[in-house]
Amino acid sequence: MEKRITTPLTEEKVRDLKAGDTVLLSGIIYTARDAAHKRLVDLLDEGKELPIDVKNAIIYYVGPTPAKPGKAFGSGGPTTSYRMDPYAPRLLDIGLKGMIGKGLRSKEVVESMIKNKAVYFGAIGGAAALIGKSVVNAEVIAYDDLGAEAIRRLEVKDLPLVVVIDSEGNDLYELGQKAYLESRE
């Protein structure tokens, strides 16, 4: 089922999303990869304020290419998500509601998603240029020294996503594999 959602990503919106749903996402999201995630968790460990408010927010695991003249954003294909797994539960515990990436997540991340009512979206790998076209505005807001991995605030319109893991822990990778195997019997 295709759903249109707009940020902020509230718990009510999260509960309505099920593994396998296709989503067109609009609103404000943030980008961050592993180096930025480490810095965010280090700030939390030091009792300091984060440069972004993660409550009801979505973080897209991406390091975009430079934007072409007249464009807000370059190509932006998803980064493999497991590299953020050591940090994700801490951010989920303080209110992060959505993550966008590709690939499997650890048991600890899925358990934290269930506990905190969060969702993991898959972006289409190999469609980086298409994804980049959904970005209306982009600005670096933290860790400029990380280059492509700096934290950016993105305004997106109809960013195409798939719910991979929902807030109940249903995992599209597992469900899809099971359905395929059953269809072969």
Automatic annotation (TrEMBL):
- Please tell me which top-level EC class this enzyme sits in: lyase
Any idea where the Fe-S hydro-lyase tartrate dehydratase beta-type catalytic domain is? 6-174
Entry-linked InterPro entries = Fe-S_hydro-lyase_TtdB-typ_cat, Fe-S_hydroAse_TtdB_cat_sf
Q: What is its EC number?
A: 4.2.1.2
Report the domain of life of the source organism.
Bacteria
Q: Per its record, what are the GO molecular function terms?
A: fumarate hydratase activity
Q: Which UniProt keywords apply?
A: Lyase
List the Gene3D superfamilies: Fe-S hydro-lyase, tartrate dehydratase beta-type, catalytic domain (3.20.130.10)
Which Pfam families does the record cross-reference, listed alphabetically? Fumerase_C (PF05683)
Q: Which family does it belong to?
A: Belongs to the class-I fumarase family.
| Protein name as annotated | Fumarate hydratase class I, anaerobic
Organism of origin? Clostridium tepidiprofundi DSM 19306
Q: What is the lineage of its organism?
A: Bacteria, Bacillati, Bacillota, Clostridia, Eubacteriales
